[in-house]
Amino acid sequence: MNPTVRLVCLPYAGGSADVYRPWASALPEGGELIAPELPGHGRRLPERPLDRAEDVVADLLPRLGDPSAPLVVFGHSMGGLLAYGLCVALDRLGTPPQVLVVSAMGPPDLLDSAASRALAEDPEALVDHVAGLGSTPSPVLADPGMRALVLRPLQADFRLLARARRTEVREVPVPLYALAGGQDPVHPPHEVVGWQRHARLWGGLRVLPGDHFFPWQSDSVPRFLGELVRSVAAGRTPVTTPAHDMYETS
């Protein structure tokens, strides 16, 4: 019997792993969702948030379970950078994942480090930025106590993003798929497709309707990931044909 295929989902800046819990229902039999909470986020809020990608990856590695079990690794926005870093780290250990999926994030060499650093150093501007994206409820940002709790991990995450451009971008040794929101003002499709330059096995860019948080605006992304898990569990090469409500650009 094939070992359980684990889908590892990594969150966006300031986000909690809980946003991925409902996606477990999209997985086929033999699929398991792993949504690790990052230090200083969600259920690990009392911990100090980490502001270096390599430190976050080091925290993630021992929480993935059996290293011999097949993995599909997904990350959205900042989580996409962490997913890439995790893929590289696993490959160095001799246990690369079967598939990497990066959503709403371009490769490190295309990041605007100055903009991320400026937001990390200006709490009011950072709150305005987050409010504009709609990822955090307005009442939370309006309450001083709650806002302070939200800002602590957010500022660490944006410091992480500001440092990410210094990262040497290694070739991704496993099938790499990129997802983008057609109306995403933060990381638009023309930026996300930049991963193609770093892919040994390019699965293509899939552009979906929606803004920066398009994975939660329909069930297209969890369904797509479920199909990847099903393919890996069956020992097949992951699908490369976009679903009916996705389109591929090159």
From TrEMBL:
It comes from the Bacteria. Residues 6-226 form the Thioesterase domain. It holds the Pfam family Thioesterase. Coiled coil: none annotated. GO terms for biological process: lipid biosynthetic process. Gene3D superfamilies: alpha/beta hydrolase. Belongs to the thioesterase family. This is Thioesterase.
